[in-house]
Amino acid sequence: MKKLKIGFYGITGCAGCQLSVIFEEDELLDIINLIEIQAWPFIKELNYDKKFDYIFMEGLVADNEDKGILLKLRANTRFMVALGACAHTGCIPAYRHFTLKENYAHLLYEKKENIKDIDPNPIDSFVKVDYIIPGCPPDKNEIRSFIKDIVRDIIPKPYNNPVCVECKRNNNSCLLDNKKPCLGPITRGGCNSVCTNNGLECWGCRGPTQQGHKMQS
Amino acid sequence: MVLSVGDAGARHNKVIKCSLKAVEGSRYFEGIVKNRMFYEAPEITSRICGVCSCAHTLCSIFAMENALNLEVSDQTIKLRKLLNWGERIRSHATHLYFLSLPDFLGYESALAMVPKYRREIEIALKLMKIGNRIVSLIGGRDLHPVSAQIGGFLKYPGKQDLNEISSLLKECKVYAIKTIELFSRLSYPEFSRDVSCFSVYNDDEYGMFNGRIRTHNKDYNKEDYKNYLKEYHEKSSTSNFVVKESKGYRVGALPRINISCHLLHKEAKRYSKLIKLPNHNPFKNNLAQAIEILHAIEECISITNNMEIKEESFKKPKLVNGHGVAAIEVPRGTLWHEYIIKNKKIVYCNIITPTAQNLRSMEDDIRAFLPSVIKLKKEKIVLETEKLIRSYDPCFSCSTHFLNVRWI
Predict the structure, then answer these.
(1) What pLDDT is stored for residue B1 in this prediction?
(2) Full-prediction pTM beyond 0.90?
(3) CATH number (domain holding residue B257)
(4) Does residue B12 surpass a pLDDT of 60?
(5) Which of A119-133, B4-18, B358-372 has the highest mean pLDDT?
(6) Is B50 in Cβ contact with A16 (below 8 Å)?
(7) By CA distance, what is B233's nearest residue in A?
(8) From edge to edge, which strands make up the β-sheet containing A5-10?
(9) Residue B8 has pLDDT above 60, yes or no
(10) What residue segments make up the domains of chain A, in order of their start?
(11) How far is CA B65 from the centre of its chain?
(12) What value of ipTM does the predicted structure carry?
């Protein structure tokens, strides 16, 4: 069977999502055997950037250069996967939208046209995105099962339950009851409620769930 | 990264011009945190870098605690040390095996090395795993930790978990030693440039959180860092460059060993003799990192041994205004966070990353190093230069295989 041609790329971001792929530890060597990694500039010197089956794109579009890379890669792949919260929702770097310009005016300087800032936005504001692996960073199991699905020609199913489902299963006491502003009920789960397990309220990094969790009255 | 180099052939093998430009998308973190509540900063600044996420979280926490005059328990400090050492182990292992080793063995990537060097890659993965295990046990997950907060921890590891970590660490010691042996056998270019080394120093332990800033001949206070460090902007680069008293300096594993070698654990200290100290060959930063992995493992074993965890309540700050600076040692060198808080809100934030501090010295090194390779083929020059840059272990988001050389 012919192996799928895969590319891992990052535009503006923290590299944490690509790192989550490398941090598969026990399974990494098996995973890379299942696929043909054509390009991964993060850890590869030789990168062939044409005719991909899947591109996993980390990061958001923050300047013209990001946009150029994204558009070019979209034209060279059958499927585009938003890897992680920045690519999916814009995540924390997109807070710039809610930040007064005067707050970061002292950090601005003149940039050449090719790297000029543009409004920070997730990749689906610029190109068609076929799949999303949400989370800041994504859950390692989710990345692994996504790759295993696509190599077996199975369409990966998104997890749509709110965070509360896993949180309850993990026997956590409800943070809302403790008057903490937890976004678990309206946030897409699949993260094994990793933040609330540790007592931190969910801040919605995985984006809204399509079926909001009804609060019991 | 863009490097402009004078053409080798046409101009009699001379370097005409050499300037390093780091280009990455701007995210303006120091602006994003402004006007937000002080306790939001650790979580937000963690997103500056995935691989140093614990580093930013911890540095931000320390700076806030300094600003608001908050003292935390010894247990909290111990757990933070574990978090920092865990991150150091996995970060160094990833850098050494996935970014540096292929350069030295003539492979395009670690993935391409697997058929012939499977055992080495497996060692890397084992070290990364123990690092990740420590970070996720103490911080709640692998990247962007959640439990470490201003004033304490949201959740504590169980006794059983700590025992498990401790026995895993003991098993991993042999991999750290194998890593040192491997990296001591590599052939490093004969290159040395005497540049000021820079690290957090205190007499009681190898570079960590507490202490003053030490260089080879002078100590400095952290609080008045703006008197001796200057950040400036290089045209066309999106990174800041930093100089100390108008000169470049080096931070990272090799500078740390240069300054605090006598504080290494017994076995790590024995292996540190493999480097002739003080050492100013930036390529040797790789070997220094390998030695630090062993030290980190020994340090974590001694912290987890006899550690009795007790649940503690959070320390809450009484002050609402303040000004705090923190400098801590993280995988790539010294990290700085500074905040001014007014009425619980952040009104000023300044962050200096290790990579920004190394850029000046990196560029000077390249300029000094190029003449020794300028007669080689262009591809080879690029590779050797990349090898030099990667030895510094610059922050991943800009160290990747992006070196575009403009031959002018």
Answers:
(1) 58
(2) yes
(3) 1.10.645.10
(4) no
(5) A119-133
(6) yes
(7) A109
(8) A36-39, A5-10, A52-58, A77-83, A131-133
(9) no
(10) 5-151, 160-217
(11) 22
(12) 0.94
For chain B, the average pLDDT equals 91
pLDDT single digits (tens) A83-101: 999 999 999 999 989 888 8
Sequence length of chain A is: 217
**What domain range is B316 assigned to?**
2-407
How far apart are alpha carbons B367 and A158 in whole angstroms? 51
Structural domain tally of chain B?
1
**Closest in A15, A44, A47 to B396, CB measured:** A15
* Interface contact B26-A63, CB threshold 8 A: yes
Residue in B closest to A14 by C-alpha: B49
B-interface mutation test, from A92, A114, A126, most B Cβ less than 10 A away: A92
Could you give the CA distance from residue B12 to residue B372 in angstroms, rounded to a whole number?
13
- Give, rounded to a whole angstrom, the gap between the first and last alpha carbons of chain A: 54
End-to-end CA distance of chain B: 16
| CB-CB under 8 Å, A45 with B401 | yes
Per residue in B293-314, pLDDT tens? 999 999 999 999 989 999 898 8
Helices (H), A9-138: 16-22, 28-34, 64-75, 85-89, 101-104
Closest CA to A21 of A12, B158, A34, A103: A34
Inter-chain CB pairs, A–B, below 8 Å: 169
**Quick check: A177 and A206 in contact, CB under 8 A?**
no
Q: Which CATH class is domain A5-151?
A: alpha beta
**Which residues of chain B lie closer than 8 angstroms to A198, CB-CB?**
140-141, 146-147, 154-155
User: Hey, are the CB atoms on B142 and A137 less than 8 Å from each other?
Assistant: yes
Order of all β-strands in the sheet with B404-407: B18-21, B2-5, B404-407
